[in-house]
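Checklist before submission:
- one chain only
- standard amino acids only
- sequence pasted in full

Submission:
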Amino acid sequence: MDLSNCFAQVAVERKHEEECDEDNYLYCEDCEKMLKNGCSVHSFKVPNSRMKWGMPKRAQRTCPRGILIGMSDILIGKSGSWTIIDFSKNTVFGPYEGEYIDQHNMQRFCPSHEGGYSWGIYKNGKLSHYIDGGDESKSSWLRYIRRARNEEEQNVEAFQFQGKIYFRTIKNIAKRSELLFWYDKKYAEFLGLLTKEASRKKMEELAPKPFCLF
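Returned file contents:
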């Protein structure tokens, strides 16, 4: 009996299980290893306040204790996320909430959604869909975390865990600080963050092409 095909099939199935399970692991710098469901010793989770979906100003109302939405120092005239208490390194905020947008249904986006409110969710290394936080009544307070002007200003980072986007502090953050994340163009593509340029390009790709018989 030739068992080579059986062993090959088992190997494929195990690899698939490992890929599916990767989303449940997080790396802990202090433990220096990947841990399933994250590290319970060196990280502290701060969940969103629960609010009714679709209610006015829902995003602001989901702020947990210690977070306040005020005017950003980075984007003039825009809101930002501010700390009103001290937060230690490895504090996890989230999840980022928004509307589910299938990658093949990009026509649903409008210009107000471009430029940083949409995050890509990956499954088995491939883009699955976007979470769009453009609508304040259907999002969470993390939509107000702004991009830093440079990498040195960054104090939080975004990451995917169990099919959702979270933000994690990368240093101790004192009260009265604005939460800021950083990404360059290449890293934005890795995160699946739908930037204004990427959004327009995607819309152009999906636009109907003129039909010609010759």
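Reviewer check: Residues 4-21 form the longest helix (18 residues).
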